[in-house]
Amino acid sequence: MTGAAGAVGTMAGQIARLLGELGYDATVLRATADPIGGQLAEVAPGGIDVVVDTVGGEQLTAAVHAANRGARFALVGALDGQLSPDRAGGSAPTVLDTYRLLTRGITIAGYSCVDHLHVETEWEGRFGKWLRGG
Questions:
Q1: Angle separating helix axes 36-43 and 57-66, nearest 10 degrees
Q2: 3-state class of 68 per DSSP?
Q3: How many Cβ atoms from other residues are within 10 Å of residue 92's Cβ?
Q4: Which contiguous run of DSSP H or E holds residue 121?
Q5: What is the domain range of residue 115?
Q6: Residue 4's pLDDT band (boundaries 50, 70, 90)?
Q7: Is residue 112 a part of any domain in this protein?
Q8: CA neighbor of 30 nearest in space, from 64, 55, 65, 66
Q9: pLDDT at position 37
Q10: What is the mean pLDDT of residues 113-121?
Q11: How confident is the model at residue 101 (pLDDT cuts 50, 70, 90)?
């Protein structure tokens, strides 16, 4: 999960655990002197299988390098572009190793809620149940 310190990332991790699908057990801080790739290797020595990416940029690049065979990436945001004074949210370019994507069978898919409006009622019900349950 990139951007896990923000509102979307914090909720995504909690929801994933509630669904019994995944979650995160460690964090990597972009604002440190240590490169992200090195930090990922330390906290996930066995590699990464699933990424929910809300940021893009160098975090996405590093996650692809740490990805296992068959890893799945869901791109749900582009905070890197939104925070850039040069791009004003209009783009979030990053460098991806397409050779690694191909040879490891890594899947990357974008997700936008506007393409899935039919799930709104279902999620409102789930959120309400979780909130009532504490």
A1: 40
A2: strand
A3: 19
A4: helix 120-132
A5: 7-132
A6: low
A7: yes
A8: 55
A9: 85
A10: 86
A11: very high
Is there a domain that residue 2 lies in?
no
Tokens of 16: 């994933």
Long-range contacts (CB closer than 8 Å, 24 or more residues apart) made by 100-108: 100/64, 100/65, 100/67, 101/64, 104/67, 104/68, 104/69, 104/70, 104/71, 105/69, 105/70, 106/64, 106/67, 106/69, 106/70, 106/71, 106/72, 106/73, 107/70, 107/71, 107/72, 107/73, 108/73, 108/75
Structure tokens at 69: 């065979």
Q: Is residue 100 part of a domain?
A: yes
Q: How far is CA 65 from the centre of its chain?
A: 14
Q: Are 100 and 79 in contact (CB under 8 A)?
A: no
**How many distinct structural domains can be found in the chain?**
1
Residue 92 inside a domain? The answer is: yes
